[in-house]
Structures are given as structure tokens and as C-alpha cells.
Hints:
Shape: elongated
Radius of gyration: 23 Å
Order of helices and strands: HHHHHHHHH
Largest sheet: none
Structural class: mainly alpha
Number of strands: 0
Oligomer: single chain
Helix content: over 70%
Distance between the termini: 47 Å
Amino acid sequence: MPLLNIKHTNETDTSGMSDSDRLKLEAYLDQLAFWWKVVIAFIAILTILGNIWVLILTWKERSLHQPNKYFIACLAVADLLVGVILIPLNVFTRLNFDPKSARSTPSAFYLCRFMVWIDTIALATSIFTLTLISFDRYLKISKPLLYKSLMTTSRSLKIIFVLVFISISLASYSVTPNSGSYGILDTALETCSHEHDQDKAKTFYLLLSMSAFFIPALIMMIMYALIFLVAHKRNKMLSNGGLVCAIH
């Protein structure tokens, strides 16, 4: 969901308004901008602290010292990118750059493309990791005796490397001039919109939505449906005293 652009609200046409009404409007917009900064700062702080706490727990808690802890850590790191880099840069650009003049400013343009890059990496990695976690949960519940041999630390790290590589590749393409990308969360404003090929933009977002949203969402729904079926079957067999045979 794109963040509210408070700065551009100040450009509201005030012609025909009295001086007192204009001053009241400006005071209201200033107050709105202040509370917007407070809310965004609060969200960023919660994002940072929450994910740092997750990383500390996965490192300190012995019961979490399993190969799949790297999936949780990967998800936390991806979310940290949003809180540490993306949200502060988003606020900075929206409060300090005028889109009408920033198009001709190289620093503003490259900053926005960097935001698109981080945006795509963080959110694509998060979604891919959530998909991987759903598959990991299904594997653990359906093959409990084989799980440790199938999901080793080495294999987990290799899978994460592949997912991050795919996310970085997708993000790197998204910052090319003809990709048409404005970022998954619309972080770029108009400062990055240099005469994009609309057909290529549609192709990019179709690829992005299929690979990073719809297909992962479908996989997760299937995995959790299978987990439910396996758990239901196990519970039924446990009631009948046949759980040991089912596991083998």
C-alpha cells in the first residue's frame, strides 16, 4: 500500500480562500504531516525491533537450532530491509523531492531506482520464503522420520541462496529503464518514470504478479490444505491406534 504523500497535499489550490482560512489549512496540513511522520516512524521502529527480536530468538533458543531456522531468519532479514532502508528513504523522498523537478535530478532518480530495487528484493524474498516455509512444514509433518535427512543445514542454505538470487535478479531487472516498474509498494513516485514502454511495463507486472504473488499464494494454499489433511488423517489413525504404522 503506497504511503500518503503529505508534501504534495500542500500544493492544493487555495485561490478564492480568505487569509484566515488559508492559514488554518496550512496549519492543518502541517499537523497532518507531523502525525504522518510519527505513524511511519512508529511502524519502522516496530518492524526493526520485531524482526531483530526474531533473529535473536532463532539464534539463542536451542529448540530452534534446526535447518529450518534459516528460513525464519531469511524472512526476518527481508522484513528488516523494509524497516531499516525502505521506509526511511520513502519518507525522505516524499518530503524532500518535488516530482516535477526531480525528474531532471540524477541523484533523485538513482535514489528512487535504488528504492525500487530494495522494494522488490525485500518483498519478493519475503513471499518466496513464506512459500518455502509452507512446503517445509508439510514435509516435516508428512515425512517426520525422513525430514532431517531431506532438509539438512546445507540444503536449506542452498535453497535460500537460490530464492535470494531469483529475488535479486527480478529486482535488478525492475530498475532497468524499460521495465516500467514503479516498485511493488509504489515507492518511486514520478521521479523514476522516464518514458516507460507501457507494453513492457504490463509484461513486467504480469510476470511479477504471477511469480511473486499468485503462484506462491496458490502453492501456500495447497501446502496448508495438505497439512490439514495429513493432520486430520493422523488424528483419526491415532484414535484407532494405528499412528505408528502410518508414520512408517
